[in-house]
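Q: Here's a chain of 401 amino acids. Please give me its 3D structure as C-alpha cells.
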Amino acid sequence: MRVFISSHALSQLKPGMKIHGVIREEENTAHICAPEMTHDRSVIGQVLHRGEAIPTPPQSPWLFVFAHSSQPKVFIWSQNHLSLTQVEVIEDHDVFARTPFDPACLKTLQHSTVTIFGCGTGGSYLALELARAGVGNFILIDPDTMEASNLSRHEGGFSDLGRNKVSVVKDRIMDIHPNAQVQCYPRDIFQDDSDTFMYDLFTQSSLVIASTDILAVQLMVNEWAVNHRTPAVFGGCYENAIGGEVFAYVPEWETPCLCCLKGGGVVVQQKRGPIDYSTATGRDDYEGQPGLHAAVNFVSSLEAQIALGVLLRNHNDAYAQIVNPDRCFWFVGGAFCKGHDPFQKPFDIFPTRFVGPRSNCDICQNKRNPEYSEPAMLCDEIPDDDPECIWDSLKPHETVF
C-alpha cells in the first residue's frame, strides 16, 4: 500500500496522537491529513513512540506510524496481517514541479500571503488557482454559508451544504497544497473587527483580492489597501456573466485606485452596463445574479493570472509582464459579449490605459497625499458632470480620470 503524507502534516505528528485521513483498500492507497483537517476525516491509525511495541489494533484497516524522523515508518494492519508499507512524504517541490516558475518565483509565492474577501464563485476559484500556482499563505473572509443555489457555481459540493464557505475553500486548498497555511474568518470583519485587526490584516498581506460584486465592499477594501499601501486586485462580472473587468492597484506605481474609477466623478461603468451594487451596504442588499460557472471563471482565470503578475512584479517572469502601470485595468468579454460596449467580438480581452489618478479622489489623493492639489493629467480638460462627453472623448482603450 502507498501511504501519502505532506511534510507539514508529518512535522505535527506526536506520539500518542490519533491519525486522521482516508484508507482506500480497493485502490491500495492511504492519505494522512494534517491535524487541522481532522473535522471530517475518519480516525485511521495512531502514532507510536520509537521502540514501542505495536498494540492490538481497534479495527481493520489500521495504521501504526513511527514518526521520529523525516522518513517515517508506517505499518498497516489489514486482513489479520501486519505489514510495512511504502511512505511518500510530499514536499512543495513535488507539488509544483510542473508550474512555469523558477525557484526564485516559487519562493516568493510560497512566502506570499493573499487575503481574499469573498469566497463565492469567483473567490473560491481564485483561491484554488493561486494555491495551484504555489501561494503558501491565505486569509479567507466571507460570512456566508454554502446553500443549494451555490452548487452549480462554487468549488464546494453537496457534502458542504450548510458549512461556512471559508471552511469549504480551506479544505480544497489543503487538498491541493497540503503545506499551505490558511486562516479563516467567517464573519463581516468590516462591522465586527477593530482598526487594529484591520491594520494587522492589511499590513501582513502581500496582496488583497476583493472577490465580491458588492461595490461598497470593494471600495472599503480599496480604502484600507491605499491607506496601508497594500497591493489589491478587484474583479467582477457584468450581468449574466457576459463579461467582466479586472483592476489591479499597486501602490508604488502611483496609478489610480478603485475609488478613482467607481467612487464618483467619472462614472464610466454606466456606459459599459455592468450591474450597479454601489448602494449595497451588506450581504442582505445583494442578490446573486445568474451566470454559468464557466463564464464567471473565464473572468476569474484572468484575475488569477493578474494576481500572480502583481505578486511576481519584481521578478523577470512572463506573468509579471501582463500587468504594469499601463496595463492594470482589463476588460474581459465572454462568448456573448459582442454588442455590449466596449466589446467588439466574442472573447474580447484587452487592457485599457489609464490617465490619472483622478485629482479629486477622496482616497488615493486626499488621504494618501493630503498636500496633493495638482490636476491629474487630462482630468481638468473634461467636464466632470458630463459622463457622455467623457466617454466620447476617450481614445480607444484609454480611460481618463
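Q: Can you summarize the key feature?
A: The longest strand covers residues 18-24.
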